[in-house]
Write a structure and sequence with these properties.
Rossmann fold; 2 domains; 9-stranded mixed beta sheet; 15 helices; 18 strands; 16% strand; disordered N terminus; EC 3.6.4.13; RNA helicase activity; nucleotide-binding; hydrolase; RNA binding
């Protein structure tokens, strides 16, 4: 987990007069812990002043208002035979009724406004919907606007799905928040805002970020139509009356599994959903992520009713275009030497590289070691000032830096198409469980390479105590990770990179 060793309790605390959809009912169950653990994302945001953000009493109040006794699990789900999926799609569509959805072969099939289509073709330079877009967008945009739980591959175009969903449900003439997107980290919120702003260039639709800032936000009412931000800041804006929910048509959770995980942001998410239900009961809910573990999936199906869903089998989640390798290293120095003498030297002309480490201390130490060896690298982790974090991400996205060392603050959703190499300097572990890998975080890390089908490679650097972790990861995903025969043989790394299509 991101920075779990250094700071186990660090929190990342951080819009239309459209046709009304059926009431979206939110429900939940009582949390078992008084203080929700936030296991990665390492931002800090002040909690609302209204009540303790994670007290037992307040959680019981939320549970009471959401009618936990009425919880039911849908016993009979129907595979949507009306949905014409692309032939090579691995996505399974499951619907709650017989609404006839037809897969979109072109963006024109979606009945989007001319202005929005212009943004898609001119600004985004898209040609046709991706597999996940072709299947999910008709489900999002077709009345009666049912809720959607969507799980799909990293790099498959999920951001465009919910961005188009939000833009399509906004009335440009109504200057009030009508769409809300909640993200686990500042970096992901800013990235999503950039996508929405670019796509909306010709529509007249406004958007803004609700993320932690160095200076307190003003109390002037938000009049932008789309708000994208982190849960702590969004909740704060709601509490002080800065963010109105009266005209909210669509609520999106990006990286929804973490937003609704007990170790993530469940408390904030439930409060936000509760307040939206009070002000705008017709609001459509979209939950997107590449991963949903069994516990979170069961919980999600209980708090969002009358939903459609898209699923990908666990063993099909890792991207076929990304080759994964394991490199056994005798000690920590060997790991540094592999990064320096093998990955850097061979990968210099291949694009950009992200090196994932488990802790802030580890990030700082590796940065220092590589700089002392003469390499120009940048590092991002939650202990940095917000402005510095923004600068580091911008420089990397602009291609001014080639190698970025990161904690898991960038593991989820971070999109940089020039990243061809990912190095797991440390394997991700579940919070407080040194012998148990974090499978979801591992998958998200892998997804930073080979975006949208591009070639990519992932090197897992393993010492003796990490061998069992790697074996568990392979077993969990039902796939064999190839071994680089020798950590100290350049030819072995050349073969690996050639196999990945990078040499």
């Amino acid at each position: 987990m991101a920075d779990a060793t250094d700071s186990a309790t660090e929190a990342t605390s951080e819009t239309t007069n459209a046709v009304e959809a059926p009431e979206a009912t939110f429900k939940t169950k009582q949390s078992q812990e008084a203080e929700p653990k936030r296991s990665w994302g390492d931002e800090v945001d002040n909690a609302p002043d209204e009540e303790p953000s994670a007290s037992t009493a307040s959680e019981e109040k939320v549970v009471s208002e959401l009618n936990v006794e009425g919880l039911t699990i849908e016993e009979e789900e129907k595979i949507n035979t009306f949905l014409d999926e692309p032939e090579d799609s691995n996505v399974t569509a499951v619907t709650s009724d017989k609404t006839p959805y037809t897969s979109a072969k072109t963006f024109e099939d979606l009945n989007l406004s001319p202005e929005l289509l212009k943004g898609i073709y001119v600004e985004m330079k898209f040609q046709k919907p991706s597999k996940i877009q072709a299947i999910s967008l008709p489900m999002i945009l077709t009345p009666p606007y049912k809720n959607l739980i969507a799980q799909a591959h990293n790099g498959s175009g999920k951001t465009t799905c919910f961005a188009l969903g939000m833009l399509s449900r906004v009335d440009p003439k109504l200057k009030a928040p009508q769409a809300l997107c909640i993200c686990p980290t500042r970096e992901l919120a800013i990235q999503n805002l950039q996508v929405v702003s670019k796509m909306a260039k010709y529509t007249g639709i406004s958007s803004e970020c609700a993320v932690p800032e160095e200076f307190p936000p003003s109390k002037i009412a938000v009049m932008t139509q789309i708000v994208i931000g982190t849960p702590g800041t969004i909740r704060k804006w709601m509490t002080i009356g800065k963010l109105s929910l009266r005209f909210m048509n669509i609520l999106v959770f990006d990286e929804a599994d973490h937003m609704l995980d007990e170790d993530g942001f469940r408390d904030y998410s439930l409060r936000i959903m509760r307040d939206i239900r009070k002000s705008s009961a017709h609001c459509q809910v979209l939950l997107f992520s590449a991963t949903f573990n069994d516990t979170v999936r069961n919980f999600v199906t209980r708090i969002v009713e009358d939903y459609n869903k898209l699923l990908v089998k666990k063993e099909e989640l890792s991207l076929d275009s990304v080759k994964q390798y394991k490199v056994y290293c005798p000690d920590e120095l060997a790991k540094v030497m592999v990064v320096r003498d093998r990955i850097f030297e061979l990968g210099e002309k291949m694009g950009q590289t992200i090196i994932f480490v488990s802790t802030k201390r580890g990030a700082s130490d590796l940065h220092k070691a590589l700089v002392e060896l003469g390499y120009d690298v940048s590092t991002i982790q939650g202990g940095l000032d917000l402005g510095v974090r923004d600068k580091i991400v911008k420089e990397f996205k602009d291609g001014l830096t080639q190698v970025l060392i990161s904690t898991d603050v960038l593991a989820r959703g971070f999109d940089q198409q020039q990243v061809n190499l990912v190095i797991n300097y440390d394997l991700p572990k579940k919070f407080g469980m040194c012998s148990e890998p974090d499978y979801e975080v591992y998958l998200h890390r892998v997804g930073r390479a080979g975006r949208f089908g591009r070639k990519g490679a992932v090197f897992n650097l393993l010492m003796a105590d990490e061998t069992a972790l790697m074996e568990k990861i392979e077993k969990h995903f039902g796939s064999h990770v190839m071994e680089v025969p020798s950590w100290n043989n350049v030819e072995d790394f050349k073969v690996a990179l050639k196999t990945a299509g990078l040499l």
